[in-house]
Amino acid sequence: MHLLDWIMVSAYFVLMVVIGLWSHSRVNTVSDFFTAGGKMPWWLAGISHHMSGYSAVLFVAYAGVAYTDGITVYFWGMASIGIGVGIGSWLFASRWNRLRSKLGVSSPLEYLAKRFNVPTQQALAWSGSLLKIFDIAAKWFAVATILNVFAGVPYTWGIIITGSITLIYCTVGGLWADALTDFGQFVIQAIAAIVMLWVVLDKLGGVSGLWTVWRDLPPSHLNPTTSKFTTVVLLVYVLVKTLEYNGGMWNLAQRYMAAPNTFEARRGARLSSILYLVWPLVMMFPMFAAPLLIPNISNPNNAYAIMTTTFLPPGLVGLVLAGIFSHTMAMVSSDANAISAVITRDMMPVLWKKAKNFTESQGLLAARVSTVIFVVLTMAVATQAEKLGGVLGIVVLWVAALMGPISVPLLLGMLPAFRRSGSRAALISWAGGLIAYAIAYYGYNATLAVTVSTPILVSLALFIGLGYLMPERKAGTDAIIDTIDRDDDVLPRKSQDGTTVPA
């Protein structure tokens, strides 16, 4: 890379650290660190939710699928998320917000101890944390792949560099730093994506390339589904992403919790949903056109990086690279904050009784230490990502398949329709889903559709079925569900001086 590119990337890293240090002044309590004190405006919550939902995997593994198969990757990889978040905007966003505002919950799993019991809470906490280690490791490896193609930086050093910068600002500034850097990253990534789109359209002969490109690509590249990514996979992905992106990925639940009220939480979710449906098309169009511009490359996963280094002048290459970094760093920093919340609020008090009586300063120290340990562990695992199935293998086969069993009790446990499903249904559905995955993937070497769909469908059947066949109705459960279900908020109103008065 040219010196101008390194200056651009270095400036980006410095900006992230500065934002993290500035955010430090806004973090005085554990609530500030994990939920921004419930003061995050809806537009920032929505953009942060969006930016925290995908990473450099988009520019590596997904770019590879776009190169070989076309637009199918948009439908199951992005549109499914937009639909799922849209569903969550009226089903889950307000409930997550009320958990914080009415029950004082700071961790996405904190309410499970009362909704079900401590063993259920711990089973979901430990299994979910373990899964996120591998999920984030795949993200580190993806961004290291980009850095290797762009600048020849060894994979291990790529992981260390991006991980260390992320660790600084997310440890110091908590959720405020995550959200504010998400916004800065969104602006940088938007500029980079528009630059890349403009260059590609210029290569295709102008704006008309948006529709003429499809005449020269194989007809199959316009199919929403393929023999591998079937209609069943697409439909299951909508179900999986509805659960995953509305709380199954704990960091995204925090964005709903951080909003001032339920109205703002829903607005933020709707903004994120629209961004997922529209914005990926801007970023992915160069990936769809790549077979025409750089045909017959040996590794399709490198398509986006090759186009960037081939077509963009010095300085703009660094800008695009910074935009790619932004996705991974946004997701990982928010994941680290959520995992830290689960460790310090849910796991540590069970393992160490003294943790229940932490002062605010002790709680903040524990949160920051657990964040450091978690991120360093994911970086170590990232160095072994290829041995674990590669980026797409981890993200699709591991995370997508195993997220369902963890998410089903967590999300459905909030809804009145499933108040009869207690701790027995939660634990059995969780264990049943994991066993179903092991049988499908390792026992029968099943297809992608079967591997992804079986765990979540088994978990759903067990959680719902046991709730009706062996109900565990408790007064405490009813009280929690009724509290977070009661929509007694009103829309924000305008005061006489024109300012907004929260509900």
From TrEMBL:
GO biological process: sodium ion transport
GO molecular function: symporter activity
Major subcellular site: membrane
InterPro entries listed in its UniProt record: Na/Glc_symporter_sf (IPR038377), Na/solute_symporter (IPR001734), Sodium:Solute_Symporter_SSF (IPR051163)
GO cellular component: plasma membrane
Location within or outside the cell: Cell membrane
Transmembrane segments: 6-22, 42-67, 73-93, 130-151, 157-176, 183-201, 221-240, 274-297, 303-325, 363-382, 388-413, 425-444, 450-470
Alphabetically ordered keywords of this record: Cell membrane, Ion transport, Membrane, Sodium, Sodium transport, Transmembrane, Transmembrane helix, Transport
Keyword Transmembrane helix: yes
Official protein name in the record: Na+:solute symporter
Lineage: Bacteria, Bacillati, Actinomycetota, Actinomycetes, Pseudonocardiales
